[in-house]
Amino acid sequence: MSHAVSEVNTPAPSRRSPAPRGTASPWASLAVLSSGLLMTIIDGNIVTVAMPAIQADLGFSAAGLAWVVNAYLIAFGGLLLLVGRLGDLVGRKRMFVAGLGLFTLASVLCGVATDQGVLVAARALQGVGGAMTSAVVLGMLVALFPEPRERARAIAVFSAVGAAGGALGTFLGGALTEALNWHWIFLINLPIGAVALVAAVRVLDNDRGSGLGQGADYPGAALITGALMLTVYTIVTAAEHSTAVTVVLAVGALLLYAAFALRQARAKKPLLRLRLFRSRVLTGANAVQMLMIAGMYGFQYIGALYLQRVLGFGELRTGVAFLPAPIAIGVLMLGLSAKVIGRFGAHRTLLAGLALITSGLALLGRLPADGSYVLDVLPAMLLLGAGFAAAMPAVTGLAMGGAEEEDAGLASGLFNTTQVVGGSLGLAVLTTLAASRTESLTGRGADALAATADGYRLAFWVAAGIAAAGLALAAAILRPSRDGQ
InterPro entries under this entry (predicted)? Predict the structure, then answer.
């Protein structure tokens, strides 16, 4: 079934009666949902800055240290689609509250960890809790704000909180590690999680879900979870394996996806209704988001490396240097994004945002070895901030507007899954290209600093190409039809 599409992204009507509204304000509920997002976003960024301290304290090898990140990503990315669907079945509030509790508990276990195995296992448990929390949030937001203009405002606020969490995580990672120790980057989640958990129980409306009997396809769940976990594992460990091993892993993931699709086509009560992908807008928006996030991860990770390894910034100074981008994102999202989308439509706003992102990444492609933060980095950072502020709420509205209310949790899980896969893929490709270029130049006798800068420039040009591909795809696929189909 194809869904009607308009510039304001009105969702298709649900075949299920909505749950009765409670007495809580939708904006109070949004604040609770945003607090859960804030905690997971902060955690994702805070760990990166503290990695050297964790390695020194617990004695991780370089390959072993990567699993402090990889254990979280594999569990998080692998479970998003499954728990998004389960949220539709058992109730999104239940899934959100359970995820908050598990994430908070796992954060404490990370904070008190004194050996490598405990930390990696606790990080995987964090990934499970993060997936449970994140997968259902957008579906809950759609139900809270059925009116298009209010929904656009809510999505702008939600996206601004995510951007703020990224900057706050980078800043807190440097500040807490330098002032105290790395354990506190995890323990900081305890007070945040406790407050958010109490607020979620009291503020969020109860929803019963449609019941496990409506879609508890356990073989399908095993197939899609295995496929997603293998996909993320293949991406994040590509640098550790030979090309042949990576290809074998990728083929294995594709076979699991094919088996899952076959299972869903034949199952009486499928976990994932394949008709969801008949929505051109939902499918296209997820593909565009994957490309956009892949390019933006280049800015976050490679940009931090440039500041530290080329310009000589310390951890805390790097965190402070990244603040202008999320500040710009937050100000523009809260003040302009919803108004711009309401005036010009989500499609045009998305195109403008992707054009700015592409331009910002291309500008970073000329960073010199003796560059200046103010002259060379900051202008591109502001372009990227403005572009993301326009593009992210627009693509979110398009993706969620293409799903029916009964599939909102699944659509939310799918949207978050494409973020994780896009970010992981972009990071793997761009860091590999940068390292290969640098090694090639130093092998030919080039100055190490100049070779490092040249490797980063290549990565930024490729990131700009990825963002440009997202722009072309959005222009071709997401243009609203005249007949609304």
Answer: EmrB-like, MFS, MFS_dom, MFS_trans_sf
CATH architecture of 24-215: Up-down Bundle (1.20)
CB burial class (10 A; 0-12, 13-18, 19+) of residue 184? middle
Do the first three CATH levels of 24-215 and 279-479 match, i.e. the same topology? yes
- 245's CB contacts (< 8 A; 6+ apart) are none
- Please give the residue that has the higher pLDDT: either 232 or 222: 222
Domain ranges of the chain: 24-215, 217-270, 279-479
Among the listed residues 88, 13, 478, the one whose alpha carbon sits nearest the alpha carbon of residue 279: 478
**Predicted confidence (pLDDT) per residue in 131-173, tens digit:** 888 877 777 877 788 777 777 778 777 777 777 776 677 677 7
Strands, DSSP E only, in 173-246? none
Provide the token pair at 332: 């523009």
Looking at the whole model, is its pTM more than 0.85?
no
Tokens of 10: 């009105």
Closest CA to 166 of 74, 298, 44, 304: 44
CA distance 138 to 84: 10
**CA distances from residue 346 to 145, 154, 201, 258, 412 in whole angstroms, order as listed:** 17, 14, 33, 33, 18
Q: Please give the DSSP secondary-structure letter assigned to residue 323.
A: T
CATH for 279-479 is 1.20.1250.20
